[in-house]
Every structure is written in C-alpha cells, then in structure tokens.
Amino acid sequence: MLSRKASCDSHEQDSSYFLGWQEYEKNPYHEVQNPNGIIQMGLAENQLSFDLLESWLASNTDALGLKRNGRSVFRELALFQDYHGFPAFKNELVEFMAKLRGYKVAFDPNKLVLMAGSTSANEILMFCLAEPGEAFLLPTPYYPGFDRDLKWRTGVEIVPIHCSSSNDFRITACALEEAYQRAQKLNLKVKGVLVTNPSNPLGSTLNRDELNHLIDFAIKKEVHIISDEIYSGTVFDSPSFISITEAVMEKHVDHESDLLGRIHIVYSLSKDLGLPGFRVGMIYSNNETVVAAATKMSSFGLVSSQTQFLLSNMLSDKKFTSKYIKENQRRLKKRKDMLVSGLRSAGIGCAKSNAGLFCWVDMRYLLRSDTFEAEKELWKRILFEVGLNISPGSSCHCSEPGWFRVCFANMSQEILKVAIRRIEAFAESLSSASGRENLSHQRSARNSRRSLSKWVFPISSYNDHEPADR
Amino acid sequence: MKPLSRKATCNTHGQDSSYFLGWQKYENNPFDEVRNPNGIIQMGLAENQLSFDILESWLDMNPDAAGFKRDGNSIFRELALFQDYHGLPACKKALVEFMAEIRGNKVTFDPSRLVLTAGSTSANETLMFCLAEAGEAFLLPTPYYPGFDRDLKWRTGVEIVPIHCTSSNGFRITASALEEAYQGARKRNLRVKGVLVTNPSNPLGTTLSLSELNLLLDFITAKDIHLISDEIYSGTVFSSPGFVSVMEVLNGYENTEVWNRVHIVYSLSKDLGLPGFRIGAIYSNDEMVVAAATKMSSFGLVSSQTQYLLSALLSDKNFTKKYLFENQERLKQRHKMLVMGLQKARISCLKSNAGLFCWVDMRPLLHSNTFESEMELWKKIVYDVRLNISPGSSCHCTEPGWFRVCFANMSEATLNLAMQRLKKFVVDSTTNNSNNRSLDHYYSAKNSKKKSLIPKWSLIPKWVFRLSSRDRDRESSDER
C-alpha cells in the first residue's frame, strides 16, 4: 500500500539514540522540579548567546514587525516565494560567510541557494550529484543524521572512510583510497566525498594536510567534495578554520582539472547563530548546473520570507555580527574548557578540539571490553544511573568502541556543573570498585603513557585495557 | 563519468521553454500603473492579493505574534530552538480548527494527524514519496496545475497519467474517464497507486460535485488505491454550490479501509495569500503515512517564527470568521468583474464558484482547433494584447483554446484595463474576419437552435457562447 520508503526503517533513527531521547523526555532534568532527572547532553544546540540576539531584536523592532524604514513590507514578503531567495538576505549571508573565514575567500550571492535547513541542503546535493545506488564517502565518525538525510529518499549509499584515534581521527590518503576500493568491491560508483568541517562529532577543524588529501583525491578520481561547514562560526581556538575554498586556492589547482566545479559548501544558521527553528540552510556551488538544479529543488523547502527578512536585517548590522561572532566564540571556549577540565578531574580524557558544541570523549577505559556491546552497556549506565543523555560513538559509525559525544552548549553553566559532578561521582565509584591500588598503578602508567598520546588519560576499569597507542 | 545526476541535468522539472519565453517577456516589460502603463499585465499568477489589509490590521493590533512574545513575555529562545518535526502544537491546533471552519465545521480534524511542511509543493512531493515507488503512477484529471509535473514526478520518479476531462460536461470527472485512464496506465505497464484531485480545481475554479466525490471513492475502493485531495483553494469558495471536502463524504466511514487511503493537502498560500511564508500541510488518517511524512518533513520544516505567528493569527476566531467571509466576498466581486469584462469582449468562461482565476474559452478565437493555433493565440495575447495568461496546453487540457486567467493578483483598475485591452483585441480580430460573419449572426444562430450549427458531439453546455474567428474550421470542431 505504501512505498518502501514509508514503511521501512531506513530513515535510520538509530534505536539506542532514540531510546536515549525517550528516556530524557520521560524524565527531563529540572533544577527545581526534577533535580534527579536526566540531563540532555546529546543535543548539539548553541544556547549560549541568545541574550545577544534578543538585545538586537529589542532594538530593531521594525525587522520583527515586517517594516522597512517604518513602512510595512508585509505584502511584499507575504507574496515573496521566489526560489532565487531574498536578494538582500543572500548578500548578507555571503558577506557573513566571508567574515567567518577571515575574508580569505569571497563568495558570489548568485552561487548561493537557500533552503529550509542544512538537512534539506545535504539531501538536495545528493539528488543533484548522484543516482540511486551510487555512493558518497564519509569519514567516520560522522553525524548520525546523515544516514537519513543523504540516503533515505535519494537511494544514495554511504561508504565510510575509517578514521582512528591513532592519529586523532584525521583523514589520511590511505583511508580515502581504502574506502574507494571498498566501494568498488561493493560495485558502488563513488560520486564524491562529504566532510563536515569543523567536524561533528569530533569538534576539530580539518588541517591543511587533510584538505590537501581530499583535493588530490577528488582530482585523481574526478569526484565531488561536499564540505558541510555549518559549524564554521563555532571555531573558538587555534588552529584557525581553513575552508575548502581557501585550501583549493592555496593549492593553485590546475583549472583543467575542473575541480572548482566539483566543490560545494553547505552552510546553515542553526549552529553559529543558534537558530535551528528558523530553518535557514544553503548550498554554495561554483557549478552553474548544480546551482540551477538546486535552486529549483529548493521549491520543496524554501525559507520563510518572514525569516529571510528578519535575518537579512540582523546580518546587515555589521557591528552586531562582529560582536556576536567574537563573544559567541569566547563563550563556547569557556564552556568547552569547563567540560574538559571537569572530565579530566574525573580522569576522563577527550580528543583535542577547537570548535563545535561538543567534545569527543574517550571512555574506552571505562568499557568492560573493547566491544560495541560494552559501549552500549556503558551508555545505558550513563543514561540510567548517572542520568546523562550522551551520544555513543557507534551511533556516529565510529570504528572504535568507547567514544562518546558530549554536548556543552545546550544548557546553563549550573546544569553543566551538575553533569560534571555526576560524572566525577560515577568515575569515582568505578575506581573505588576496582580498588585504590589499581588506581595509583594506573595513574603512574598514565604518566608514562603521556609521551605517547598527549590527550588521552587512561584510568582504571574493571579489566585490563589495551594501551592507548592502539 | 557523468559528474551530475540525471535529475540535475534533465528538463523534467517541467519548466517548458515556450512558456518560459512568455514569462521572460513579462519580466522584461511588466505593467505598472504609473511607470509602465503599456507593459504586460500579469494574469498568470494565482495569487490572492485582495485581503492583505485585513491581515495587516490584525498584525498592527497583535504585535506580540510577530514579536516573539506570548502574553508580553519573550519566547524567542523557545522558538529559535524549536525544530521538532511534529510541529508547534498550537499551530497545528489552530490550523485544524481553521480547516474545519472552512468546511462549515461539518468535519473535525485531529491535530495529531496533521503534518506541517514548507508549502503544499513539499506536501505533494512528500505524499508521492510515501505512497508510490519510482515508476509507479498517479492519475490526475486534466486540466491540472502545471507545477504538478515537477512536484509529483521530478525527484520521486512517479508518473502522472491523465484522466481526460472535456468541456462537453464542464470538465467533470466521469467513471469512464477514470477507467480509461486506469487502463491506459496498465497498458503502459504502470502500476497505479492513486488519484490526485485538486478541489476546488486549479485551473477550472470549480468545486467537485458530490457525485464526482462519490465516484472517486467508489473508484479507489474498487482499485484498492489512494486518493489525495489537494484542497489548497478550499477557503476561496465564494458562491454556490458550496465546498464539499472528501472528508465530509467520509463521515461515518471512519476506520474503514478506504478512510485510511484518503489524504488531504492544505496550505495558507491561497486562502490567506501568504505563499512567501511556506505553510503547507498533509492530513492523513493513516498512522504510517503520518509517521513517515512527519520524518520526511525534516527536509522542509516550517520556520518556527512563522508557525508561531500563524498559531496566534488562526486562534483568533473573530479574525478567522471575519477574514473568511470578507475574503470570499471580495473574490466573488472580482470574479464577477472578470466574467462580465470577458462577456463584453464576447468571451465566455466556465461557470465557476472558487479559486483565483477563471477558465476562459477562447476556442472561437483559434485559427484552427489545434494546439499550434492555441500557442499562436497565446503569443498574440502576451506580445500584442500584453496580458500574460496561461494556455490550457500547459495544464494538459485535451482541448485547445482554453486559458486560465487570474483575477485576484492585481488592482481593480488594472483588471479593468486588462478587460479593455482584451475587448479591443477581440473586436479587432472580428472586424478583420474575412468571412465577414458578425457576432450577431452566431448569437441568433444559437438562439434559433438550428441544429446544423450546433455540434452533435456536445451536450450543449449552457455557459459556452460560441464566437466566430477568422478561419474557423467547422468540420474540425465536429470531430472533437
């Protein structure tokens, strides 16, 4: 009766992830009403800078009231459904994007296509670049939503590029080639690579080497690169963000390679401005055909003109955007430092990160065994006993068990502190369970391992764990 | 290796090149009462611009709704973060109540069966993804909205098979037309998954009759298929017969098999004149469809800023009552203006009671009963008469000579001007008629009921006044 798409489960709503959500919904933390409830740390939202937005809104009521210079533009906006997008808004967006990249690149508003969220943007790019049954390579770990967004209605396949903690989950030329070969063996034609930069869930920006590997690979295999840069405004620490466009420019790519026509950027205001509800996403492409097709496809998810108007006003206020970007990044850094030091005092390490709204936390040493079953077990304990909803690495297709994404920007400072205390108590309870001698033994072992892997602080767990230099 | 997909490089987004040229012509020379009084008047855009003042005055009196405030308190944060694909509960509640109000409260809707989408464009595509595989088909009565060729087929791979309707019975859907379309699909090895109707119809501007609705329900029951009723114009019904929603016919058939296979599409683009705000919806009694469509709506959610504004607007029942009534009155007046203006130009149109347009019969102005002739006429109307109207062929009409002419997207003065231009065009064409037949001859011939002048094939529809044109080929009209 219904299509396979409607009846199957491949919208990929991972059941453990879903369970975490359900449990949170049933028992959400509240400082007063439910202090023992579950704290949501699985939602990559940016709630730190609303006051800045609200204060701007309070001084710019015209934008809200659909007025320009005191005159109502309601009719114009009510009727505006042109899929080319509100020109003023696109002009402001490309300017904002350039600003986030330190003006090292410039963007042409005619190459920007607006649509309802980066969810829509990513799916549209799949429809434009691949046939059903063809494949895109994605470095793991990756955002779980991609399984739905890229594959569900498009029929496109994802083939993972395995990255590992041995080199901070960096993309290597070897991993790229290996993924490509694996796709070939599966009879899947590879149309491109999709990277998230800064990465979700790692919280780190791609370095120059990685970007160069991608470029070399895309030239050699004649495939596309999609760079999902929705977290580009959340880079709060060095090294600074290098956009794919900048990397291509710096490499002085030979124009004959046509590579420029195969580079596409996805952006959104959901993370940088904390406005996921407003559904503002976009595709930037140098390829005319892609821009033309994506523009028409955006009909299936246009941005509300009411929202385009409000945000074009907001982004045109350059003083505001400069202040916002800087202050927002400062607050994100502070929060991240809080979480990292809180985890450290619980003896838990995380991957070094300089961006994003989360940390990639190493709980391998808390696993009963180096397996995904053990990871799931640990995740459930953290959900039900510790009362924290965090995202297990397996939901992000991580190839190593024991890693978790923990968000830090979607709650108040007080709640983060509560969460950290709970983690500390949990870690304490684990180490006291395994005995004090083990703990001091592990601490000295840890100190000697420090030279091997800077950021990972192993602690004791029930059984002997494998060395960090896996 | 082909770098882009077939979808990206092909033309089946349905943006046909000859109409594109016509649109370009309009874009290059748009009418403006002051700045360009000789420009092309846009009559091809089904927009409702008649009642903005009512909306604007509501917004002035309710600044909180656009100001992210509820009872004076800021709810900006809550809205900024709200991306739940189940939709803002207050918005869905207000929307289902509005939908019920439009249907005279003869049906009630359950907000948990409503899925919000960024426009009905998104809703229709989503339903295709949910109900059909690539290569399967939906039957659509002709003439139909040209956008369906893109919305229903492009990315889904679903096929459209037309249900041919003709002027012989006012373009009503008949049992034999349904069956013929179904068999036609089968011959092409296309598995039919359902029927999609627009009620009220675009481009006809008529509401489906009770017998058509029953026919459709009988048909989908017999064939075990779906029915999608696109009711985006339901609030524009301005005269009798009133609007009968398919859901009303299903009252008393809850939880039957057929009840689960009927889905409604709605939108605020036409009734409220807010196409820019992208508010569409799917209503389905089938839980699985609701569940799947809800997840798919992730690809086109309605901005929470807009959902909130709408929830405040539509929960004001004084407003909705006043708006619906006043808007319908204004549409009725405009419709009357257009019909009378056309009559003065000796042009008739299909009797209609809804929508933002008339379905105009320009067959008498054709040189020959062909689509080439229709295209010729259309070009003349765009380039010489300077009116951008939509030719029936773009709506897949089987008979050449019909045009959709919009009346709600310009001022009264502009509409009057358009009618004057049209009248002049017809008069000039008739004056140049080399056969020297006068209009009066044809009206008297009609009145005298001389059967030789009345085509045997037709049911002599009351509303069609035949006119002469230059080289009208009598025999070809008899063949239709």
TrEMBL record, chain A:
Could you give a GO molecular-function term held by this entry? transaminase activity
The enzyme's first-digit EC class, named in words, is lyase
Q: Does the keyword tRNA processing apply?
A: no
Q: What is its EC number?
A: 4.4.1.14
**Which reaction equation describes what this protein catalyses?**
S-adenosyl-L-methionine = 1-aminocyclopropane-1-carboxylate + S-methyl-5'-thioadenosine + H(+)
One Pfam family per UniProt: Aminotran_1_2
Tell whether Transit peptide is among the UniProt keywords.
no
- Output this protein's name: 1-aminocyclopropane-1-carboxylate synthase
Which organism is the protein's source? Answer: Carya illinoinensis (Pecan)
TrEMBL record, chain B:
Give UniProt keywords alphabetically: Ethylene biosynthesis, Fruit ripening, Lyase, Pyridoxal phosphate, S-adenosyl-L-methionine
- Superkingdom as given in the UniProt entry: Eukaryota
* An annotated Gene Ontology molecular function: 1-aminocyclopropane-1-carboxylate synthase activity
Q: Does the keyword Zinc-finger apply?
A: no
Q: Which reaction does it catalyse?
A: S-adenosyl-L-methionine = 1-aminocyclopropane-1-carboxylate + S-methyl-5'-thioadenosine + H(+)
Entry-linked InterPro entries: Aminotransferase_I/II_large, Ethylene_sulfur-biosynth, NHTrfase_class1_PyrdxlP-BS
Summarize the subunit comment.
Homodimer.
Belongs to which family?
Answer: Belongs to the class-I pyridoxal-phosphate-dependent aminotransferase family.
Q: What is this protein called?
A: 1-aminocyclopropane-1-carboxylate synthase
Gene source species? Carya illinoinensis
